Amino acid sequence: MKSIDIAFYADFGKSYGKGLEIENIALQCKKKEILGKVFIRQKTSMNHDIYGHQEHVLMFGNMFFKLLSGIQKYIFKGFRSRYWQEKVFDYLVSLKIKKEGTNKIFYGVPRLNRSFKKAKSYGYITVLHAAEMNANENLRIVEETYKNDRPPSIWDRELLDSSINCYQYIDFVIAHSEKSKKSYVKNGFTKNNVFLTPMGFDADKIIPKKKYSQSGKTKFLYIGNITKMKGIHLLMEAWENIDNQEAELHMCGDIYEDLASEVKNFTAKNSNVFYHGYVSPSCWFEKCDVFIFPSLSEGFSRVVIEAAASGMTAIISEAATDINLFNNGNNGFIVDSSAEDISEKISSLIGKYDLIEKIGRKASEDFSQFSWEHFGENTSEILLNLHTDFKA
Predict the structure, then answer these.
(1) Which fold would CATH assign to domain 4-200+372-391?
(2) Residue ranges in the chain modelled with pLDDT below 50
C-alpha cells in the first residue's frame, strides 16, 4: 500500500532547510508501509533506508539550485533566486507525478502550484506541509511592517501570491503551531481539515546546560535571520529603551538587506551589543543566559525549542512557536510583538539568575521529548489516518 508521495524542496537528511523534516516523515511512513516516491533536491547515500524511494528532480542533484543562489549572492543582488528555484523545482516535480491507482496522497511544501494542481486532477488527496503561516496573513504582516519600503526577497510579493494561488488545490493542512493553524482557519480552511503537530530537533546536538551564571552581566541571545519579519527592529528599539548596563545582547545569523545599515549602526553605538554572523547554536546556548525570539511570523521556529531544551530561559512572541508548549512564566515567557513588551521582559530578567536557572531547568525538562522521530511519527500518523478515512 504505497500511497503517499512527498515533495520537499530540501536536501534529504541535512540539518539545514527541511532536510531532517523530510527524512523523519519518510522513515515513519515507510514503517507504516505507506511511503511512495520522495521528490527532493538532493538524495542521501545509497545505504539509507529510504534511498530506493528518493528521486532527484534533476540528474545532478542540488547543483543547479546552488548555482541560482550564487548568482544572487555574487553576481546580481536583484536576482530572485528563491523564486526561480521553487518555480523550477515545482515544474520538475509536476513532470514526475503519475496517474496510478486510487486513494493516493500528495504531501508537499508551499508553492508547488503545478504539482498540487496535477495531483488534484489525478484524484490525489492533497496535503500541505505548512512550513509557514498562511500567506494571506503573511501578506498583511509584510504590508504593515514595510509599508512603502521593499521587503527582503524571501518575502517577495510574487512568492506570497504563489502560496495563495496554491491553496485552491489543497485539501488538508498540517500546521506546526497554534498560531499558524489559526491563520489557515481564518483564511478559508475548515478547522477539521487543519492538523497540528509541533516540529522536533536533533537531540544529539543539544546538550543541556551544566552551569548557570550567578553573577556578571546577563547575556541575552538571538539566533536567526536578522530581518524585520523576525522582529529584530523591535528588539533593537527595546534594547535602547532600557537600562542595559548590566546586560549584553548577542545577535547571530544572516543580516538581510532590510536591516543591514540599522544593525551596523546599532552595534557601533552600543558597546554591549555583539554581532557574530552565522553560528552553531548549541555552543551559544551554553555561553548565554536568556534566549530572545520576537518573530512576527513563523510556521514553527526550531531554534526556539532547541534553546529551551538546552536549558535556556526563552522570551518569545506568540508567532515564534506553538504557544501550547509554553506555560508563561513557568518554562519560558511569551510577549507581544512590541518594543514595549520586549523591553519590560528583558528588564525584569537582568541580574535575576536564580529565576533564569529555575525556568531554564524546567524548560529543559519539558522540551527534551521533542525529537525528530516523535515529529515524524505524529505526521505519518495523520497521513495514515487521512488515507484510511478516504479509503473507507
Answers:
(1) Rossmann fold (3.40.50)
(2) none
